[in-house]
Amino acid sequence: MDSKESLIRKISFIPLFEGLTPSQQTRLAQICAEKKIKRGQTIFSEGDSGDGFYVVIKGLVKIYKLSVDGKEQILHITNDGETFGEAAIFAGANFPAYAQAIKESQVLFFPRSAFVDLISKDSSFALNMLAILSARLRKLTTLAESLSLKEVPGRLAAYILYLSKSRNNGNTFVLDISKNQLAALLGTIPETLSRILSRMQREKLIAVRGREIRSIDIKRLEELAAGSQRLS
Amino acid sequence: MDSKESLIRKISFIPLFEGLTPSQQTRLAQICAEKKIKRGQTIFSEGDSGDGFYVVIKGLVKIYKLSVDGKEQILHITNDGETFGEAAIFAGANFPAYAQAIKESQVLFFPRSAFVDLISKDSSFALNMLAILSARLRKLTTLAESLSLKEVPGRLAAYILYLSKSRNNGNTFVLDISKNQLAALLGTIPETLSRILSRMQREKLIAVRGREIRSIDIKRLEELAAGSQRLS
DNA sequence: CGTGCGCTTGACTTTTTTCAATAAAGGTGG
DNA sequence: CCACCTTTATTGAAAAAAGTCAAGCGCACG
Questions:
Q1: Which of A31, A193, A217, B214 is the most buried (most CB within 10 A)?
Q2: pTM for this one?
Q3: For the ranges A113-122, A158-167, B7-16, B180-189, which has the lowest average pLDDT?
Q4: Cβ-based contacts with strand D at under 7 Å
Q5: Nearest one of A57, A46, A63 to A100, comparing CA atoms
Q6: pLDDT, position A70
Q7: Is A90 near chain B, with CB under 8 Å?
Q8: Protein residue at shortest CA distance from C1' of C14
Q9: A172 and chain B: CB distance < 8 Å anywhere?
Q10: How many angstroms separate the CA atoms of A115 and B32, rounded?
Q11: What b/e readout covers A180-202, taking b as 16+ CB neighbours within 10 angstroms?
C-alpha cells in the first residue's frame, strides 16, 4: 500500500518511538501493518483479548466505554501520532474500552507477539522506550503542577522558568509554539497573555522579542511561580 | 540495615514498580541497594556517567542545574516514591543535572547493569513498566488538558467526568482527596470550589454528599468541560 | 495587493479571589 | 462518651483578575 521508506518516516514521527535508532525503527516497520479504518468501524471492543496495539497516523479514533445503562462515555479522542490500546497490551490485559473510528483513519498495528519478541531480543529497545516515557512524564508533571497555580502570571512564570531551565541557553529561549497556543496551554486567552507579557516586561522581569523570551529577574519570577508574590 | 521483607514492601509502593508480580519485586529487591544520604550531600553531578538510577523512599532531593553564571536552578524537588535519574539511565546518557539531598534522605539505588540484565532476561518486566508509564501518561495528559480550560466550572466538570468514567461505578464516585486538595489540583481555592459545587447542585448537574459525587446531567457536564456552555 | 492570521490594546463585563466569620467534621485526651 | 481543639467546608460582601467584544496593526502568502 505504501513504500517502506514512507512507513519508516511515519514511525519516526510517533512520539513513543522518537529517539530510537534507525535500525530499531526499521525493525518496527517490519512487524507493523498499515490499516485503513472506515468511518464508524469498530477497531476493538471492551474485553477483547488484544493481540496488538495501534497508533493513529491520520484520522480520528474515539476510545469509549458503555455505562451500565448503555450510554457511550467517551474517554478520549486520539490525536495523530498517539498510540491506543498499548497500556493493555503491554500489561497483557484485555482491552478495557471500545475503539471506533469517527472518520476514515489510517492506523499502524503492532502485533503483540512480534513486539514482545523485539523487546526481548533487544533490551535497549525497551530501555529507550522507558526513557522516552519517563522523560515525557516528568515534563507533563511539571506542566500540570504549574497549571494548578491559580493566577495566570504565576502559571506563565512557571512555564518561562521551566523552558529557560530545560534548555540551558543562558536564560534566553525561543518559543516553539505560537503565543495563541501558549495561551491555550496556560489555560487563558491570547489577550490576557499579551497583557501579562507586557506587564512583565514593564516590570523588567523578562524581555520579549517576538518568540524570543529572556528571563531577567529570575528571583521575582520564582516568587510568582511559587505564588508568594504577585505582579504589581 | 533493614529486613528483606521491609525492602520489598518499600519497592511495592514505588509507582514505577506498581503492578509487578511479587517475584519480580523480589528480584528488584535483590539488585537494589538502600542508601542513607545526609543533608547537603550530592548524589550525582551533571555529566556524571550514571551507573544506576535512584528512588526516594523518604526525604527530599533537589534536582538542579547550574546556569552559565554559576547560579543554581532547581528543576524539581522529589516526592516520596519518585524516581530520579532514570530517564538518563534508561537512555544510556549521562546525568543531565545535579542531585543533592536537602534533608537526610533514604533512597534506593538500582545499578544499571543489573537492571538491564533483569529486563533482558524477563521481557514481561519491561512490558509491565511500559504499561504503567503509558497509563500514567494518559492519565496526566487528560488532567493537563482539563486544567487548561479557562474557567473553573469547566475544569471541575472535566475532572468529575474523568473520575466518574475511570471508575465504572454508575456515575457515582468518592473523592480520595479533600476538597481543599481538589481545589489546589484544579488551580483554584476552596471557597470557589465550594461555591461552584453548590451551583452545580442547584442546577442539578451533580449531587454531592460529603466526598461522594454523583453525576446527574452528564450532557451538560460535557458541555461545560468542552467550554461550549457555561454555568448560569 | 488584498486576505487572513497572529498579536496587541482599550473599554466594559464576568468570574474569581480575598478577607472575615461561622459551621461542620475529625481526632485526642481526660 | 464528652469537651476541646484543629482541620475542613461553606457563605457574604468588596476587591482584583481575567474574559469578552471590538478595533487595529503588521506580516506572510496566494
A1: A193
A2: 0.79
A3: A158-167
A4: A 151-153, 187-189, 191-192, 196, 230-231; B 150-151, 178-180, 190-191, 193-195, 197-198, 208, 211
A5: A63
A6: 60
A7: yes
A8: B151
A9: no
A10: 28
A11: eebbbbbbbeeebbeebbeebee
Tell me which range, A78-87, A187-196, B96-105, is most confidently predicted by mean pLDDT: A187-196
pLDDT at residue B226, rounded to an integer: 85
For residues A85-89, average pLDDT = 89
3-state secondary structure chain A: CCCHHHHHHHHHCCHHHCCCCHHHHHHHHHHCEEEEECCCCEEECCCCCCCEEEEEEEEEEEEEEECCCCCEEEEEECCCCCEECHHHHHHCCCCCCEEEEEEEEEEEEEEHHHHHHHHHHCHHHHHHHHHHHHHHHHHHHHHHHHHCCCCHHHHHHHHHHHHHHHCCCCCEEECCCCHHHHHHHCCCCHHHHHHHHHHHHHCCCEEEECCEEEECCHHHHHHHHHCCCCCC
Q: What is the 3-state secondary structure (H, E, C) of chain B?
A: CCCHHHHHHHHHCCHHHCCCCHHHHHHHHHHCEEEEECCCCEEECCCCCCCEEEEEEEEEEEEEEECCCCCEEEEEECCCCCEECHHHHHHCCCCCCEEEEEEEEEEEEEEHHHHHHHHHHCHHHHHHHHHHHHHHHHHHHHHHHHHCCCCHHHHHHHHHHHHHHHCCCCCEEECCCCHHHHHHHCCCCHHHHHHHHHHHHHCCCEEEECCEEEECCHHHHHHHHHCCCCCC
Is residue A155 a contact partner of residue A146, using CB atoms and an 8 Å limit?
yes
Give tens-digit pLDDT for B144-176. Answer: 888 888 899 999 999 998 888 766 667 888 888
Reported as a single tens digit per residue, the pLDDT across A30-59 is 999 999 999 889 999 999 998 999 999 988
